[in-house]
Amino acid sequence: xxxxxxxxxxxxxxxxxxxxRDGYTTMEDVKRFTGLATGSCQGRLxxxxxxxxxxxxxxxxxxxxxxxTFRPPLDPVPLALxxxxxxxGLGDDEGR
Length: 96
What we know:
Blueprint: E1 4-6, E2 11-12, H1 13-21, H2 27-34, H3 47-58, H4 62-65, H5 79-84
Antiparallel strand pairs: 1-2
Helix pairs in contact: 1-3
């Protein structure tokens, strides 16, 4: 039976455990190797379960495992612009 650890990225518990056994032993390592926490929930569903798995397999404490690096958008986009649909650079055919 398949146990999903990161449903947004369709990562199974077995895939994450294999990555940890292959030497990816911090949260950032696991994220970069597997794509964990890069889906639509941005880790809200999978970070804590992954930390539990990392602790179990490495014997490290949470403070040693770290968290993932959160990166805001380079240039914030006003929600009104996204909701308007179209406009410069959004859905128009200019510049293509």
